[in-house]
Amino acid sequence: MDQLITLYHECCATYHVEPNETVVGEIEKASHGDHQTKTFNLSSLSIPEAQYTVLGKIFSRDFLFTSIHLNDCNLSNEALQAFLHGLVTNTTCKTLELKGNRIHGAGTEALAQVLRRNQTLQNLRLEWNQIGAMDSPAFSSFCDAISMNKSLIELDLRNNDISHVGGSELAAVLKRNVTLRILDLRWNNIGPVGGRALLAVCQSNSTLNEIQLTGNNVPDDIMQNINNALAKNTEKRQVHFGHSKNMAVIARQLQNVHTEKDRQITSVLQRVSIQEQAMLKANKSLADKVKKLQDALTDHKLAFNAVSAKNALLEADITVATQQYNDAQHDIKKLKIEKDQLLHQTQRDYQQEKDGLFNIQEKLQRDLNESLETQRRLSEKVHDLERKNETLQTTVHELREAITINDRDHHLKIASLDDENQRLKLKHKEDLKDHELMSTRESQRLKESYETREQNLKEQVTKLENFRTALEREVNSLKSTISTQKLNYEENFQQEKLRLKNEEEKKQHELQDRISSLITTREDLESRYGQQLLCNREFQQKINFQLVEIETLKRQIESVQTSNLSKDTEILESREKLKTDFEKRLRLIQKDIDINTELKDRIKQLENDLKDQRFNDRNTIRELETRLADIQTKLNQREQEVSRLKHDEERRLHFLRTAMLDYIGRGTKAN
C-alpha cells in the first residue's frame, strides 16, 4: 500500500499536479480493509481533470483494487480517455461503474478500446449516459469491442439513447459473444425492430440468461418470446452444469478406485517382501539346526515307520494344497472370461446406441425432406393460382377491348345513318317518313343488340366473380392445411426432443449401472484375493508345523538322515514352486488391473463419443429450427403476395364496374 501511495506522489510530480487528499484517503481506506474486494470510490466527487491522468497511470500498474466507482463525476471526454487508457493493461479490476457521466463520442471509443484489450473486467455499468445517441460510429465500435471481449459477464446500458438501429447492431455482435450473461437495456428506444433482432440473438446465443427491456416500446409478444428463449438458455445451462457435475463425480470415483487399487498392490508387494525375508531367516535357522542334528540322529533308527507315515500325511497335505491352487487358477480364468464378455457387451451396446442415434438422424432428415416437398407443392399451387389470375386478367382485357370496339362501331353506324338521313331528306322529301321509320327500326335493333351484349358481359362478370370466390376458398383451404402441417411438425419435433432427452438420461443411468457392476467385480476380486492369501498363510503354517515335527523326530532317527535331507530338498523345491506360482498370480492380478484401466479408458472414450453425438444432435436441432423459421418467413411472404394479388383483383373489378357504369350512363344520355 505504501508503494501505491509513493507511486501516486511520483506520478503527481511527473505531471506537475498537486496530490488530492480524497484520492489518498481512498487508497489508505483500502489498506485498512480486511475483505478481499477492494473498492476505489469517487462517486459524486469533483476533482481536477489532471488527476484522472495520474489515476490512469496508477491503475495501469495496480494489483489491489477490484472495483472502481466513478458515478456522477461529470467527466469530460479528455479525462475519461486518460483514465481508461490506464485500465487497458489493468489485470485486477473486475467491476467498473461510470453512471451519469454523459459519455458519448470519444469517451465511447475509449470504452471500446478497454473492452478489446482488457480480459479481466466482468461487470460494466454505464447507466444514464449517451453512448447510443444519434447512432454514432462510436457506438458501432463499442459493439464490435463487445463481440471481441471474452471476460464481460454483466453489462448495464440503461438510459443511453439507444435506438432501433443501435439495438440491431448490438444484437448482431451478441451472436459472436460467448461470455455475456446479463444485459440491461431498460428505458431506451429500441422498438419492435430492435426487439426482433434481440429475439433472434436469444434463440441462437445459449449464453445469455437475462435481458431487461422495460421502457423500450417493444411489443408484449416479442417480450414473451425473448423470456421464453432466455428460460430455455437457463434450462440448457442447468442441464449442462448437472451433466458436468455428474461426470466430475464419476471421474473422482474412478480416481479413488485407481488409488485404492494402487494402495492394495503396494500393500501386497510389501507383504510378499516381508514373507520372503521371513523365509530367508527360516532357511538360515533350518540350516543351522540341520548341522546340529547331524550329531544327534544316531540313536533313533526305530521310529522310521512313524516318520514315513507322517511323511505320507505331509504329501497328502501338499496334494490338497496343489488342488486348492488349481481351483484358484480356474476361478481366475472364469473372472477373465466374465470380463471379456462384459467388454464385448459394452461394445455391442455402444454400437446399438450409435445405430439408434443414426436412425433418429435419418428420420429427422426424412421429415425435413417431406416438409420441403410439401413447401414445393404449395409453391406450385401458388404459381398455378397466379397463372389463373393472369388468364382472368387477359380475359377481362379482351372484354374491355370488345366493349370499346362495339361502342366505336355503334357510333360509326349512328353517324352514317344520320348522314344518310340528311342526304335522303335533301333529295327525296317525299320518302322522309319511310327513311325515318327505317332509321328508327335500325336504331331499335342496334339498341337491342347492345342490351343483349351488355347482358352477356354482366353474366361473364358474375362468372368471373364466382371463379374469384372459388380461388379465395382454395387459398384459405391451402392456408389451413399449411397451418395444420406446421402444428403437426412442431408437435413431432417436441416429441422427438423429449424422446432424445429421455434416451440420454437412460444412457447415463446405464453407464452408472455399469460402473457400479465394475466396482462390485473389483470387490469380488479383492475378496477372492484375500481368501487366497489366507489359504497361503494356512498352508505356510502347516508347513512350519510339519517342519517342527520333523525337527523333533530327526533327534530320534539316525538311519533316515538321507531321506530327511531329500525331504528337505523337496520342501525347498515346493517352496520355490509356491513362490513362482505366487508371482504368476501377482502378474495375473496386474493384468486384471491393466484390463480395468483399459475399461476405464473405454468408458471415457464412450463418454466423449456421447458428448460429440449430443453436440451433433444439438446442431441438427438448431439447423431444423432455422429451417422452420425460413419456411415460416417464406409462408408469410406467400400470404402477403396472395393478399396483394387479391387486393389488385378487387381494385381491377371495381375499376371495371365503374367503367361499365360510366359507359351505360353515357349510352342512356346519348339516347
UniProtKB/TrEMBL annotation:
Coiled-coil parts of chain: 283-402, 440-556, 589-648
Primary site of residence: cytoplasm
Compartments reported by the entry: Cytoplasm, Cytoskeleton, Microtubule organizing center, Centrosome
InterPro entries given in the database record: Centro_Cilium_Assembly, Leu-rich_rpt, LRR_dom_sf
Q: What is this protein called?
A: Leucine-rich repeat-containing protein 45
Origin species, per record, is Rotaria socialis
Q: Which UniProt keywords apply?
A: Coiled coil, Cytoplasm, Cytoskeleton
SUPFAM superfamilies (alphabetical): RNI-like
